[in-house]
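idk why but the lab printer keeps eating my pages so im just putting this in chat instead. protein + magnesium ion:
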Amino acid sequence: VNPPVCAEKPSTPALLSPNPSYFLVLQKDPSKALVIAVTTRAIFNLEEEHKLYLEKGKEEYIRHQQANQDKPLPPGTAFAFIQAAQYVNEKILESTPAEKDLFDILVLSNNSPESGARIINSAKHYGKGNPSPGYLKSHGVKLFLSADRTDVCNALRRGEFSPPSHIRKPTTLFPSSTPLRVVFDGDAVLFSDETDKVFREQGLEGAMQYERAMEAVPMGEGPLKAFAMHLGKMRKKFSQEKSPIRTYLVTARSGRDMGIRAIKTLREWGLAIDEAFFMDGAPKGPILAQIQPHIFFDDGLHNIQGAQNVGVPSAWVPSCSAQGTEPVEGKPFGGKGRIS
Ligand SMILES: [Mg+2]
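predcted complex ->
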């Protein structure tokens, strides 16, 4: 049984919860766009302000934000990812000016209008779009990034913003560069956690037997499938050499026996991944350090930690327990024989 990693509690402080009083829209056509919702604390570095809010309270926080409203906030953990997504938009518009299939970035904020001016000014300072406050009736959000674990847990529990991910700050940030590089884990991220479950119940031998028996059957959808499919659709607008997007699968499955079904599933979905790495249980950190992705998604906290240690911005994708209520860490095949 996996211990729940998120306590049942309200988001604190409300300032940063994903139940925003407003959000900023940088692009507009949610029916066509690839919608990413990101909290202010994930996109901007608000650590000092967050501390001030916790220690001195809301009024002092508002006073500080008003006094500094023309001073752009420093970039946060998700900043390079969002910037690379905007670069992809530019490249798409260069080749097809009328294209509506673009990244649509929603910046979620619980700031009041008095304290929110600095956020809006910062978004304007860095952004190419013209951010305007709107009200959240959103849907079609394919990725939600928050720097607050409780936010993510609450969003998961309420079924909002599927899939929510907790973005983790690495020890050092790689310099931002293009193209946009996104790394996905396999089991319980792109794919469902069905094989993880078999492993938990029956061990590695059981999981391998299951995979052999199911070889011809594609795996179920994982929480990041919809996002990855949309990214793949954007990716197809370009030739391999000119693509502003590169996608990677870095899975702890082995390439031999456990890799076949992963490859077949991607083929069945029509999801072209630029490079796939089958780590056979080896740590993911070294390969991530080479790829230098703008973001890495994994359900295993040991992999997230490994990514953070080599300076890779990473997003933890929690999964639900059997009851579907408690977000838990994916407990993939740890240690020897780990496949997920
Ligand atoms: Mg996994």
